[in-house]
Amino acid sequence: MRIVVCVKYVPDVQSHRRIESGTVVRGEEDSINDVDENAIEAAISAKENHGGEVIALSMGPAGAQGSVRRALQMGADRAIMVTDDALAGSDVIKTARVLAQAIEKISSEGEAVDLVLCGVASLDGMTSMLPTALATVLEWPCLGGASTFGIEEDGVTVSKFNDGFQDILSAPFPLVASVNDEVNQPRYPGFKQMMAAKKKQIETWDLANLPQGQQLADGDCAFTQVLEAHERPPRQSEHNIITDSGEAGKVLAQFLKDNGFAAGQEHINE
Ligand SMILES: Cc1cc2nc3c(=O)[nH]c(=O)nc-3n(C[C@H](O)[C@H](O)[C@H](O)COP(=O)(O)OP(=O)(O)OC[C@H]3O[C@@H](n4cnc5c(N)ncnc54)[C@H](O)[C@@H]3O)c2cc1C
Q1: Mean per-residue pLDDT over the chain, rounded
Q2: Closest ligand 1 atom, CA of 130?
Q3: Is the pTM of this model over 0.85?
Q4: Disulfide: which of 116, 128, 239, 255 matches 176 by Cβ 3.0-4.6 Å?
Q5: pLDDT of 30-70, one tens digit each?
Q6: Can you name the residues that pair with 169 across neighbouring β-strands?
Q7: How far is the CA of 105 from the centre of ligand 1 (A)?
Q8: Residue 238: pLDDT band by 50, 70, 90 thresholds?
């Protein structure tokens, strides 16, 4: 089985994230997107149980190799970074097209790719759209937001929880699936694995390496436009806590009125 796991390098959530000219500043304190470690763990476990190969794939700036390096440390066999200046500021659609091209190139090398695994969302863009966009470009089924994940003879079955319901879905290979952080407990690579991963080569591809790289280079990077991006205003420090001694309703109504949230006085005494 050939498994590709898509991983992203994102500004560390603990770090002071900044936005300059509409894009997130990268390369300062970045780390692998948390839930992508769950996707890597699912891929490595699948390989351990069913044999095959795990290939980590990422699209990002030159300095974003940390994401695929982490995958190698956890046990991936190969790591591919797609980097090209023409891709800076790419939106979900462009990213999906580039990753799909890379997956087609991997498939054309030998055995076809059976499964693409992703995390359910990145910690910076947070659109959760990439896995489905990738499946659309590949014209493969997509199982999204899995809390449990099982491989069968000819496909995958997942379950996910929505509003107290457990949905169980399955799809045949080849397919794309995204997992959340309930699906497993990512292994923590030991010193030996870290050292072994250090020796492994990370392949770097640019658009010229991709089958339709020229079209991708010529096409727009984003169909979305960031009109404005600025720091979120600080939360209001002053809080009004209303202790209910029977008048809370009236006090709240008065507060809403005083702060322009409600109409005339006449209703407050009802
Ligand atoms: C603050 C912010 C807001 C944005 N808003 C939008 C928007 O509204 N619309 C839009 O089209 N683009 C948007 N983008 C751009 C978008 O983030 C990128 O295109 C990104 O590569 C894919 O979207 P995502 O990060 O939301 O991924 P998600 O769909 O949230 O990520 C899900 C999974 O996809 C995989 N993945 C995501 N990106 C990559 C990658 N580059 N390489 C390998 N695997 C990957 C990972 O497994 C990840 O866990 C935004 C970016 C930022 C920083």
Answers
A1: 90
A2: 29
A3: yes
A4: 116
A5: 899 999 999 999 999 999 999 999 999 999 998 889 999 99
A6: 158
A7: 22
A8: low
Scan for tokens 């699912």, then name that residue.
42
User: Of all protein residues, whose CA lies closest to atom 47 belonging to ligand 1?
Assistant: 118
More confident residue, 75 or 239: 75
- Phi, psi (degrees; rounded to nearest 5) at 172: -85, 155
The pLDDT assigned to 93 comes to: 94
Of 77, 8, 9, residue with least CA distance to 43: 77
Report CA(161)–ligand 1 centroid distance (Å): 23
How close is the Cα of 126 to the center of ligand 1, in Å? 6
Contact criterion met (CB below 8 Å) for 203 and 83 = no
Q: Which residue has the tokens 């591919």?
A: 80
Tokens 């996707």 correspond to 39
pLDDT of residue 264: 55
Q: What letter represents residue 128's amino acid?
A: S
- Ligand 1 lining (C-beta closer than 6 Å): 6-8, 24, 33, 35-36, 39, 58-60, 90-92, 95, 99, 118-119, 121-122, 124-131, 224
Q: How far apart are CA 162 and CA 57, in angstroms?
A: 29
Nearest C-alpha neighbor of 55 from the set 73, 42, 43: 43
Range with the largest mean pLDDT of 9-18, 203-212, 215-224 = 203-212
Q: Which of 37, 11, 12 is nearest to 181 (CA)?
A: 37
Q: Going by C-beta distance under 8 Å and a sequence separation of 6 or more, which residues neighbour residue 211?
A: 101, 104, 105, 108
DSSP class of residue 87 equals: G
The pLDDT score that the predictor gives to residue 68 is 96
CA distance 233 to 212: 43
Q: Which two tokens stand for residue 163?
A: 């509003």
